[in-house]
Amino acid sequence: MRIYIFDPIHQIPLEEAHKAGDVIIWNEDGIKEYEDAEAIIVRTKTVSKELIDEMPNLKIIAKHGIGTDNIDLDYAKEKGIFVTNTPTANMNSVAELAVTLALSCARKITMSDRLTRQGIDTLAPKELTGIELTGKIVGLIGAGRIGQRIGTILRDGFGMEVSCFDPFMSEKKANEFGFKKYDNLLDMLKDVDVVSISVPLTDSTINLIDEEELGVMKESSILVNTARGRIVNEKALYKALSNNPKMYVAMDVFEVEPPKADNPLLSLDNFIGTPHIGAATEEALIRMGNTAVEEINLVSSGLKPRYIVNQL
To answer: Angle at CA 225, nearest 5°, toward 76 and 166?
Structure first.
């Protein structure tokens, strides 16, 4: 099988890809010719209708990660091309980052670091007084694999109560996890202390957190987004954070990526930004790459892949 890899992947799965077929890999100038591609692996590369049309032999688009908003799923389905992802590979890494960001907000870690580097003449200044997560309530927007993992870590590690808003999770399943299920997002946001977002970017989740949602949250709320940019309206967020210094927000994802230095949010002391590093651990990169190659191997063998996103 002719495999084109459009974005850098870890060396270990790259070696597995070479065993699976003829591999053409990315370069600094980008891959220019790919009409003989039968399989492609992508991370952030946009796979548009036009790009798909340039690969008439394409059988599978293997996403190195979970979110597939960079791929034209409908057109791939129309052309009979499998689109797969790696739904379990980066679950733990993203969940650990979400917890890390929540803790960083609660204890004002980035502000503490900055003031320490600038020079400080007193220990534990008042403006660096934080809060404990223990005993607080976390609200999960999205309670799939990653959301469940975040909730479990915060519940078992910090004694937090866990609430969730997820139309796709049944009351029974929420009860099995010990989560309190809400059917209305605004109702949950009013009640919780920490909010963690773990939903895909779809038409229904664009600006899911907007002025109204931010307005009903507790004054000292913490909001963490490790899912996708555009789920949180950045203009509304900037206004909310500017007007309420007690609220703290951390985002690993932005409307424009990579995030620009002149993004107004980055000027705020009560905002933490990271450049989409949720899945950037050695372990997750290996698992994601290996899973993508395994999906290609299944298709090469005439079998259906395990993690089909666009059911044909």
So the answer is: 70
